[in-house]
Each structure stands twice: as C-alpha cells, then as structure tokens.
Amino acid sequence: MDFFTQNMTRLIANELEKKTGKRPYVIINRLHRSKLDANRDVEQAAQGIYDAIQAWNDFSGFILEAKNEIEMKMGRGIFFDIHGQSHPQMWLELGYVISPE
C-alpha cells in the first residue's frame, strides 16, 4: 500500500477545502495493486478473482456515486486520480482528458 499518496491526497483535499469551502470527495483503494489494479477494466483488474471483482465494482460504484452527486449539486466537477509510480527517475506525471463540452 502506498501511504505517501494517501497522505498527499488527504493534504490536497484539505487545501482544496480551505480554498473553496467545499470538501472534495476522496475515494481511496486500499488494496495493493497486485490484488486489484483499479485503473484497468474489471477483467484485467481483477483477473477473474471473485473478491477482486467485487472490490472493483465497489470502488467503481463509489466513484460513480460521487460523480452523480457532484453533477446534481454543482453541475460539473473535476476528477483527480492520484497514485504512486515506481519510476527510478522520480517522475511526476500529469494526465488529463478534457472534452470540448
């Protein structure tokens, strides 16, 4: 489990709340990536293991529930996917998908 990114996520959430007055949704997958790679589709993420499939469904469901609540309350929002990497160069990666809408 990557505790540094969990702590960093909580710090970011705290700062966003200070700046905006709104507490962001924070959803943390506490399973090791060898057990569940939640950033993949369910077949690849869970490798056919029943408990991992259930965990993937739960994790994805929490994200969908948060997304729906945000859309209902505010119309739109932003999603941050924060997770560790094992690059020897200590890279920081920023990925984004922005639709024209």
Overview of the molecule:
With 101 residues, the chain is mainly alpha-helical. It has three helices and no strands. The model has no long low-confidence stretch (mean pLDDT 87).
- Topology, number of strands: 0
How far from one another are the termini?
A: 36 Å
- The ordered string of helix (H) and strand (E) elements is HHH
Count the helices. How many?
A: 3
Give the radius of gyration: 15 Å
Quaternary status of these chains?
Answer: single chain
Q: Which class do the helix and strand fractions yield?
A: mainly alpha
State the major sheet.
none
Strand content: under 5%
- Residue windows where pLDDT falls under 50 for at least 5 positions: none
What's the shape?
globular
Task: Summarize model confidence as the mean pLDDT.
Answer: 87
The helix content, as a percent range, equals 40-55%
Outline the fold blueprint.
Blueprint: H1 3-20, H2 42-46, H3 50-74
Descriptive key words:
101 residues
Give me a quick take on this structure.
This protein is mostly helical and 101 residues long. The protein has three helices and no strands. The chain is globular and about 40 Å long.
